[in-house]
Amino acid sequence: MLVPERVKWDTETEIAVLGYGLAGAVSAITAHDLGASVLILEKQSADSHCSCSSISMGIFLSPSDVNGALTYMTALCAVNPHEMAWTDAETIRAWAEYCVQNKDWMQNLGGKIAFFTKGGEFPQLPGAESMASWKYQGNGRRLMQFMYEQVKSRKIGVRYQTAAERLLTDERGQIIGVRAIDFSKGKPKEVHIKASRAVLLCTGGFEENEEMKLQYLRPYPVYFTGGTANTGDGIRMAQEAGADLWHMNCASARLCAKFPDFPVAFFIDFSGGGWSQQQMRAKKEKLTVGFIIVDKYGRRYLNEQLKPHAAYYELAWYDSHKLEYPRVPSYYICDQRRMDCGCLAQLTSGPSGPEQLYKWSRDNSVELEKGWIIRGETIAELAGKIGVPAAALESTVRRWNEHCQAGEDPDYGRSHLELVPLDKPPFYAVRLFPGGSNTQGGPRRNSRSQVVTPFGVPIPGLYAAGECGSVYGMLYPAGGGNLGECIAFGRIAAENAVAEAPKK
């Protein structure tokens, strides 16, 4: 949007950072420490804690070596070897070089971190062994509190309840500021903020924009566990400024539970005991509870040892004869063994995690009463309550129990460590939908974190970091990939933005 004639600038700064999640905080700190004046605009209030960063486990990726990370990410982004790729080679290299530094950067800042796990989500790809994840002491909330303290100690300005609305350009197309709506005093007020060097888009994805999810993601509906303010604002602003888009149909997603009377989705602790599938396999201990996942016809359709950030794609099959997504919704099926292990919701991240947006009952009794968990004394009764053909579900469970007795799953190859029968009534089900952490699409960026046009030309004065145009394509590298990208490209964006010559 061309800056209005005789505009009255309400505030002037060198670097305007839009969005105050992890990418925004890292960008602001880096730009400030390089000598630039910085102002952060955040559409939510100061006491809001529903950002994707805050409700995360606080895990971030910091690979062990650049060459291994480069090899793995290159393979991860390849559609067909030597043909097309989701992300260009230069940007992949920038990701590898900066992500390797993440651990040291966070420690040098004073962050309390510890090694979490090693190995990529796709061990069959070369370089996967170089992936290493680190965890901030506590969780995502503690991580963000630490980052907020770092911003505050530097006296970096933050304007809460101020929603960036349009990017302002001069007659040459350079980004020179932002038009925003300030809601902090109740009555909306239009404000104009001048950014003499650059604007950094750290506004997240489009988890809460139903129109964009319908148009760009498959399947539908898709639900997410946080980011209630992520409505695609930065994406639309960048489009108006001439930005190309990429990775719009990609998401860091899995199967999650969504209930009509709660605004965001929940992660389900499928195996009980708070263990992830990766942790369970690492410990080489057999699960004490059994579970399966079935489609709306009562059939298993996948190995339930889920890739935690790619299982979403298993739900995207569309039946062109029945004109439906037969796996939306799906159903998590368990028996009394799992209920006796404690709450079904995951307590390490999501709305039932450390932020406690919702406090799930320890014995699941409240959620049973709400109808979030469905109970049946028999498999047939459970099938009737969830609208699944009883004969099909009975057959599926019977076959599963036979696999457990034989110690082998010939249908989908599930590990013998997970072959626990469903034979202790009553039986339970939870409706599952595609979704989870966040979308990945947005404005295309280059290796310098500059937002570019469809012709690959950088838009002067415009940068992006974090999930607003993530560098990840269809596949996600490893646990902590998103926060790792926030730290890496938050620094890349700030370093290059500060190097820009001031605009008059």
Question: How would you concisely characterize the structure shown here?
Answer:
This protein is of the alpha/beta class and 504 residues long. It is built from 13 helices and 19 strands.
Number of helices: 13
- Quickly give the CATH architecture of the largest domain: 3-Layer(bba) Sandwich
Total tally of structural domains: 2
**CATH homologous superfamily heading of the largest domain:** FAD/NAD(P)-binding domain
Shape: elongated
Q: Give the low-pLDDT segments.
A: 275-281
> Structural class from helices and strands?
alpha/beta
Strand percentage: 15-25%
The major β-sheet equals:
8 strands, mixed
DSSP strand tally = 19
Protein described:
- This protein has two domains: 11-250 and 440-498, 3-Layer(bba) Sandwich (FAD/NAD(P)-binding domain); 254-436, Flavocytochrome C3, Chain A, domain 1.
- The chain is built from 13 helices and 19 strands.
- The strands form four sheets. Strands 1, 2, 6, 7, 8, 9, 18 and 19 form an eight-stranded mixed β-sheet that branches. Strands 10, 12, 13, 14, 15 and 16 form a six-stranded mixed β-sheet that branches. Strands 3-5-4 form a three-stranded antiparallel β-sheet.
- It starts with 10 loop residues before the first strand and ends in a 6-residue tail after the last helix.
- A hairpin with a 6-residue loop joins strand 8 and strand 9 (189-201).
- The longest helix is centred in the C-terminal third of the chain and has 18 residues, at 481-498.
- The chain has 504 residues and is α/β, with parallel strands linked by helices.
- It is elongated, with a radius of gyration of 23 Å.
